[in-house]
Amino acid sequence: MNKKQGNNLPYSYRENDYFFADPLIQSFMSEGNNEELFREATNENNLEASNCLDQRFREFYLRVRLIHYADKLARLYVKSYGEKKRKHYAELTLDTSVQNGSEGETSLKDLYPHPQPPLVEETAISIEDILPTKKMIQIYQSFSKQKQIILHLWVYVQLSIREIAEVLSCSPQNVSKLKAKALSQLREGRDRR
């Protein structure tokens, strides 16, 4: 409604301008002859026009709620469908869950035995065998037993920090800190030569 119409509007429009500024009410009033019905109901106190207007608003509001519900439902479906697709693409074939008898659900990768590295005489058995300088070997030998075990489990057994922490019954933060410190000391020994 423009400003020129503002002066010609019934008293209820002018007194409740915040109500009539609502987009829902403006949309309803712009449909069909609802504005005329409103004028008749307010200016002429026409009960029939008022009842007709009430009935039209109920139908209009129901339509708006249904559209809003359908929109929400569609958005939810699209979101859940997208999440399902992302999960499906991210899931590797070996990560697929399967029933494992009495043990419950497990993944396919857990059913395959872990390959053990071949034990060949040429294979290095300790960290000392792979260190290139005598200084690095000396530094390694000066480490506490715990640091040596951490490096061995990390290099040869290829355990994660969390798994090493479980083996040693300590926190992953402690294992990470000791591993980083040991590697840093070995690097310093390499650089000194």
Automatic annotation (TrEMBL):
Gene3D superfamilies: 1.20.140.160. It comes from the Bacteria. It comes from Salimicrobium humidisoli. This is RNA polymerase sigma factor, sigma-70 family. InterPro entries: RNA_pol_sigma_r3/r4-like (IPR013324). SUPFAM superfamilies: Sigma3 and sigma4 domains of RNA polymerase sigma factors.
